[in-house]
Amino acid sequence: MAMPTAPPRSLGASLAIRRRRAGLVLAAAVLALSACGGGGSGADGGGGGPTPCAGIVAAGQCLTAAQFESRRDALARGYLGDREYRAQRALERTNAHKAHAALALVLGEAVEPGAGVKIAVIDSGVDLDHPELAGANITETLLAGVADEVAAQFPPDRYSHGTAVASVIAAQANGVGFVGIAPGAEVKVYAVPVAHAPPDPNRRRSYGFGVSAQSFGTVLSAEIDIVNASFGSPGLFVENYTTAEIRRLEKEHRGFADPVAAIAQADVDAAERTVFVWAAGNDHGEPCDPTWPGVENCVPASSSPLGGRYRASSPGLVGGGTVALLEEWQGHNVVAVALGTDGSIAEFSNRCGIAAPWCIAAPGTAVRVAYFGPDGRHVAAADGTSFATPIVSGGLALMKQFFRGQLANPELVARLFATADRTGVYADADIYGRGRMDLGAAVRPVGAATVTTGRHLAAGGHDVRTTALTPGSALGDGLSRSLAGREIAAFDALGAPFWFDLSALAGEAGAPPLAARLRALMRSEGSEDRAAASAARRSGWRFALRQSPVRTASSLLHLAGDGATLALTAAGGFEATAFTSAGLAGEKTPELGALLAWRPPERPFGLRLGWIEERESMLGSVAAGAFGRLAAASFVVGAEGSAGFEGWRLAADIEVGWAMPRAGGGIVSGFSQAATSAAALRATRSLTARDSITFSLAQPPRIERGAARLTLPVGRTREGAVLHETIRADLRPSARQIDLAVRWRRGPALGGELLAEGLVSHHPGHARGAPEFALLAAWRAAF
User: Fold this and answer.
1) Is the dihedral of CA 104, 108, 113, 117 positive or negative?
2) Is the pLDDT of residue 197 over 70?
3) What structural domains does the chain harbor?
4) For position 238, what pLDDT does the model report?
5) Which of 230, 343, 484, 680 is the 20 to 30 A CA-CA neighbour of 729?
6) How far apart are CA 705 and CA 403, in angstroms?
């Protein structure tokens, strides 16, 4: 929700018709002028309350979905305007720039994308002194006796594969060439004897991973979140195998079985298993010899020097393809195929094939990489599923960071797949699997975000867009101040948490709007003399519709609004009134109550005792959605008096109240007893036989003591349990609204009465702030 701003000066008119006693009163406001220095506006008896925030907490504000996306997109466009960022086109093509912008809005621009996430890169090694990696959080561990790479020792057509892969994730914004997808991640490079030679008859039937189970164990023991595995054995395609054959291979080849078991992580809880991201392979169209014994998917081709070319219609078996056949791999293993610069599948890339449910497409052509090799360059453009893989690994790191590590790793994988772009050509699962990776969609709510009041995500909840608490005027800014800086978590259709500004959902009462002040002006009595008014009443019963049980707004009983009243006046100035607003059109919440008043005839004082039962509100505060149900029973004691002095008629009214609020079915779990106060002073003088003037000083009802108890969903565990925090929120507002008004009345005039009022309200809405000024005029007539 956007922060409220001061409303501009406004000029308007309104028309209201209400029943009064046995007739009708027609009142028209001919002029309404106001200027205020802050605050909000709302309905009579309370603030308009908040517009439910349908977005997430960003830059200290709760933004609606449209506002959030607008700011995110503007920030993302700024990233693309940077030469170094724009150089890595894969970022824009996966909407990583939008994910980066969302992270900056939510966590602050100082937070590096990927920070707090550990990514292991199992590869050939890395040049830690490369300029692109200067300042990166990156380390290297040499496994299985592998020697550190030396640039001069590479053949002319080779380079450090591991340096190139790691840089796609970790390249820093340092003016050298390009930016990585997750430059803030902690990257641990594990150098292993991985071969990158093209397929040949001697390697064609090799089922070994090239990485020992011991090496995999070393990697996994480092509490790694994501493993990037840009390697595999070419010439073997998972579509040509069955699960039974894989089980046989496990028995016959320890070099296959032991890594398979290590990657399955059977001894680790499913929610905590490290995610592996695999390169699908670069076999498609590669030369092969159809006469090789047992050759797979080798299609005769006259253009091939060997007589055939591979039709790589599925990923390589050794590596990611295994996920298609082994259930114990499914959920935490991802296969990446490569997209060309035109967005379609790259010519060289293996297709997803039978691994489609666990396969995703990402850019793998002309990917900017850090070059460490014999010719001394720093940056190069590389092709291969090896470079689509770190784009996916880095994307998962951004997602993990955005959701504050609260999603289980299999949930991150499921979300990556569920939010992928499956439109157009990407609907072809045999080629693209789950579609094109879309990180912008991955960090947006899927479906409605709901606030749950249960202990588990499965308990369901209330749509955050319909969750709001509209405070009554007596609360002022008390609740919003107490909730300032607090968040509430809502969960989308996939169980991902999004955090909302709780104070924006609750809001503050704000100053009464002009319409409410106008109604108060038209409701005012012609005489403020309590004794005279009491003496004028005749004994007996009276029934009225659209009438307030009290004549002053400085009473908690004013919450009843204009309802139905039944009054009995007896001798001695006693009056008993029952009232209700239930079932009356225009009344937002049903209230009922009773008032016992004693105003002795010809005496300048009076007392009253009242009770009001709010069935769907609490001191005028209305809850919706996850805030649950509110109700309250309130008791008031009031004293009033009047006296004459030097031609003036002076009147005073003071009231104290006690409320017993109730709550249920939502995040508001209870209240303490509350105390309220209200007061008014008036001085009226006749100017002529037709004109009178009244000066008044009033404090509307205000909470003096009281607190709410809220049980807030603040996040979740990786197992899906909702985390709650119970807080106490003081309801007392920060200031006291004092209204100073001068009112002129002329009657009879034009068959009715003319009324005009000038008013200054200090700390309007019981919130510390600039005063509000208002000028009102009305004409009313009874007929």
Assistant:
1) negative
2) no
3) 10-44+506-782 (2.40.160), 112-442 (3.40.50.200)
4) 96
5) 680
6) 38
